[in-house]
Amino acid sequence: MCSAMVLLCIFVAVLCQVCALPLKNSTEPNEVKMRMKRKYSDEIENWDEITAMDQILIVNSRLRAPRGVTFRDGDIASSYPRSAITCPGNACLWPKSVDGFVYVPYIMSPLYDDMDRITIETGMQDISAGTCVKFVPRTQQGSFLDIQPRYGCWSFLGQTGGSQTLSLQTPGCMWSGVAAHEFMHALGFVHEQSRSDRDHYVTIVWKNIMPDQTHNFRKQATNNLHSPYDYNSVMHYGRYAFSEDGGPTIIPKPDPYIPIGQRDGPSALDLHKINVNLELANDV
Ligand SMILES: [Zn+2]
């Protein structure tokens, strides 16, 4: 039921996105060269280009894992001994209700102010408006998101069972695109450039990555859901993620000027993938 409702929206949205992809950047070569040399994080020169993941990495730069938790890929939490980053057998998907929707219950910390709550709820709505996911305040459900302003922006991957923390620090993580990014982790999605087929679409510049951070660029055994690689995904790392000296760590191919990542919220393809993924979810 829900699938039929969103199919048309998704089709139109994907069409619009494809139409709006004159991916060749018109920037002059010298300007590009200068940007390629810019410093990552606190020396980013053009703040218009900062992606959701850039902001997350800035906030999380001094993140220390709470007891019993480790972090992978900058912002994905896992509990000992559950260290798998993938979701084998779709075991981490939230269950699908008989009406076709997937309800994700949540509670939100009273420490947030009104503006914080609006930002976080916008992140939820940007997902639910184009998908069969509905974020609902928890009543009696046993499994739910516990959204808290802990240190950093991070989430567990998929449904872990019981109460699961999703941290959105204020004010650092108070961007709706950052919130949507973390909610997509909670729905079971890893970063776009972690896809098993990413080497067809991007070059990872290993020599530019901080030596102790190369583990954040591992490929994962992802189910790519027959979806195209999405440079515009809100789950994509920025071009300079984990850069050692300001050089790019990810270069799209064959066209290196294709913009990667953004901060506005889930792309049309992100929404499409969420819906396709939900088809795999178990019925309640
Ligand atoms: Zn992330």
UniProtKB/TrEMBL annotation:
Residues making up the signal peptide according to the UniProt record: 1-20
Subcellular location as annotated: Zymogen granule
One Pfam family per UniProt: Astacin
CDD domains attached to this UniProt entry: ZnMc_hatching_enzyme
Cross-referenced Gene3D superfamilies: Collagenase (Catalytic Domain)
List of catalytic residues: E182
GO CC terms, sorted: zymogen granule
Enzyme class: hydrolase
Keywords: Cytoplasmic vesicle, Disulfide bond, Glycoprotein, Hydrolase, Metal-binding, Metalloprotease, Protease, Signal, Zinc, Zymogen
Coiled-coil ranges (or none): none
GO molecular function, one term: zinc ion binding
Cofactor(s) the record lists: Zn(2+)
Co-factor note (free text): Binds 1 zinc ion per subunit.
Limits of the Peptidase M12A domain: 83-282
Binding site for Zn(2+): H181, H185, H191
Highest taxon, organism lineage: Eukaryota
GO biological process, one term: proteolysis
SUPFAM superfamilies, alphabetized: Metalloproteases ('zincins'), catalytic domain
EC nos: 3.4.24.-
Protein name: Metalloendopeptidase
Phylogenetic classification of the source organism: Eukaryota, Metazoa, Chordata, Craniata, Vertebrata
